[in-house]
Structures are given as C-alpha cells and as structure tokens.
Amino acid sequence: MKSVNPWSWLWLGVGVLYFAIPLIATLDFSLRAEADTLSFKAYVNVLNDPNFRNSFLFSCAIALVTILLSWLLIVPTAYWVQLKYPALRPWVELVTLLPFVVPAVVLVFGLIRTYSTTLLNSRQGGWVLLTAAYVVLSFPYMYRAVDTGMRAIDIRTLTEAAQSLGARWPTVIFQIIFPNLRAALLNGAFLTFAIVMGEFTIAALLAQPAFGPYMNLLSSSKVYEPSALAIVSFALTWGAIALVQLLGQQVGRSSQITGPR
Fold this sequence. Notes:
Blueprint: H1 6-30, H2 41-47, H3 50-83, H4 89-96, H5 98-101, H6 104-115, H7 123-151, H8 155-164, H9 169-180, H10 182-198, H11 201-205, H12 211-219, H13 225-255
Helix pairs in contact: 1-13, 2-13, 3-7, 3-10, 7-10, 8-9, 10-13, 12-13
C-alpha cells in the first residue's frame, strides 16, 4: 500500500482549520444576542425580515439566468474554437480574462453611462443590465470549465458520428455536446452561482435589491444579525448549489446519449 506523506495531512489540517475557525467563531458570536445565554434570537430576526427573503430569491433568480445565458454563450463558442478555429483560442482566452483586468467598478460605471437613458429607466431594464454584467463576470470561470471539459472528450468524433446519422448543428450542440459536458457545466455553474450571490459592487451601484447589498446594509445597522446572516447565507448557498447539482445529475441521466435519435 502506498504510504501517505504526513506533510499532506498537516497541510490539509491547516487548510481545514483556516476555513473552520472563522466559521465557528462567527456561529458562536451569532448565538450571543441575549446576555449570558446562547439563543437563536439573531437568526429569528433575520429570517423574519422580508428584505432577507426578497433579496435572496432575487439573487438566486439572477444567478440561474446568468448560468443559463453563460452556458448558451460559452459552450457554442468553445465548441467552434476547438473544432474549427483553434488558432483563435489565445484571443478568446484573452477576452474571457478581461473581467480580471477591468475592475467591477469601472465596468458598472461604463454600463451606467451607456444605458442611463435606456435600460436604467425601468426596473426590468436594470435586471437585464445586472444579468449582463454577471454574465461577463462569469467568463473566466465558465469558459475554462467548459474548455477543460471539451478537451476531455473527442468532440470531432462525436460531431462526425452525429452528422453521419443526419444530425444538424443545433442537434449536435444541444443533444450531443451539452450532455457530455455535464460535469464541466456544473463546475462552471457552481462558481458563477457563488460569485453572483456574494457580489456587491455592481448590484449596489445599479441600485438592485440583491443579496450582497442587503448583507452590507444589515452589517451597518445591526450587531449580531450580520453574523447570523453569514451563517444562514453560507448554508443556503451550499444548499442551493447541492440542489443545482442534483437537478443537473437527474437531467444528465435522462438526456445523455451518444448520438441523435
């Protein structure tokens, strides 16, 4: 049996403590809303706040739409780059890295100056602008997850086999490529969901009722409730991610095929 390097266990333990200690400390502080006793008073206050429910559901809806649009934009792009235009890969990777170079505050001020007299004149227009900004922010994570997934499968053989059976391009992409990228799509979806749920700058400057601005507002006016909200949001976010993974696995089992029907 291959021996395990004790340094691996040491660094694993350090990593676990690095993440667990602040979480445990936050949980302990959130339970001390009442003097000399541990209680869930702060949690009750948070869960009874209608702004919490509205902002969380709003961010969840925006995150799901962002994930769907990112899939529809990134998968065909990565597919064509890998299958037809591999010379364009460095340029596409450069474009997807721009959200790391351009700060979010610069991006949102550019959007405000461009769309202040059109989309931002209505509530629905603000939702569209916020979703578009989040799609741009998801580029680095979604593209690399999809590109890595495509490198792991032989998309040229799959494409030629599907076309030999009479499949058209939409059939190839949506019934052959998408099901075989299920793991990569879910990885990109997890990262995108986490980014959207915690994003503050764009949502606040666009005056949208998202979860990030709500957490910041609560932190400036309450003492124990922000810690309770951090624990609740941590649990809800991971629960939502687990739900997305469960739904993705069920869809994948029911739709994954090796050729057009």
